[in-house]
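Notebook entry, structure prediction.
Reason for the run: the old model in the group folder had no record of what sequence produced it. Starting over properly, with the input documented here first.
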Amino acid sequence: MDLELVTVGTELLLGFTIDTNAAEIGRAVSAVGARVVRRASVGDDVQAIREAVADGLRRTGFVVVTGGLGPTTDDVTKRAVAELFDAPLEVHEEYLRELKDRFARYGRAPMPPSNRSQAEVPRGATVLHNPRGTAPGLLLEGELGAVMLLPGVPLEMRLMVEAHLVPLLERLAGSDPSARRVTRSRTLRTTGITESGLASGIAQVEQKLEDVSLAFLPGWDGVDLRLTAWNLPEERADVVLDRAEAALRPILGEHHYGVDETDLAGVVIDRLRERDLTLAVAESCTGGIVGARLTAMPGASDVFRGAVAAYANEIKIHLLGVPAGLIEAEGAVSEAVARAMAHGVSQACGSSAAVAVTGIAGPAGGTVEKPVGTVWLAATVGALARSRRVHFPGDREEVRHRAAQAALDLLRRLLS
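New structure, fully documented this time:
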């Protein structure tokens, strides 16, 4: 079935907030055979919301709306849709009690008066439970069609899409899954290879793939290769994606490190754990990004010993034991210093593996021999060591994040 999506929030139009909700809903509904045929973003304005929803209902009869369900004066989505359906807002006593209990449970009683508005529900609407927030979702159905209202907070929205929107779409699609046609995607994650290099490498295989389209998605972490099976029976879509992935993986080789939402830091942690190794990190230009990415992964404490953000040369010398003469002779951004940093942090933290990064993130500090974007990486695993010089384009933030990804990738490959 076709549906339309309306995302509400003046912050979306001003550019202060990126609309990730629309992308997540698009992926979720296409996976169960539905299709978002149009989406619109409108500000926190009753008339604009009402018109956008009415237009969508005229075209498809089913609209999903996110945002504008909070307790503040700019949250007007519920009122706009209630007016459209001629369904006056009424206090939902059961939800009001639940709301008060929630505030009491978290030690925030009494409930602020403004939150009472979240218990006001358009007459005849179905209240949809929100497990993480105070704004319930709502489903309104009538002669105009059906509208599902969901919170705009991404985590709340995501949980409610899984709990309410997807099951509803599956019911509307019918009880026979074999008759359902879906569009499904799978992403193969690569790093350490350019978009053009990846495209050239897989060109011959790409021509032979059946029922699958490929899209190249370059970013700071590398190039994601998205495989999409379009409008196929559910079981057939999975088979097609499996076959395409099997054909592409050997060509991607070491550049491939995971599927879909896989994080390279998580891959590194898993490999260290499998080998009963521990890790320490020494960072200069990245200033802690590598350590932050590692510790963001569940289970990092199994392997991660610690990190030193050795930004100043004095810290490299006194905490990591990098010889002052080495820095003077080779420069802080050099293979020798990167290797010494990795060795030093491993000794300091008592780890069996280490990774180090030192570079020139800019915008100043570059030379003819070492221009801005020059980075030296080093990794050690026991007696094994590997180092690499790379050069990244972009501004300071891009160079630092690319360097962190490259450092993790160097260690991953050494662990292989």
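Summary: The CA atoms of residues 306 and 334 lie 23 Å apart.
The old model has been moved to the deprecated folder.
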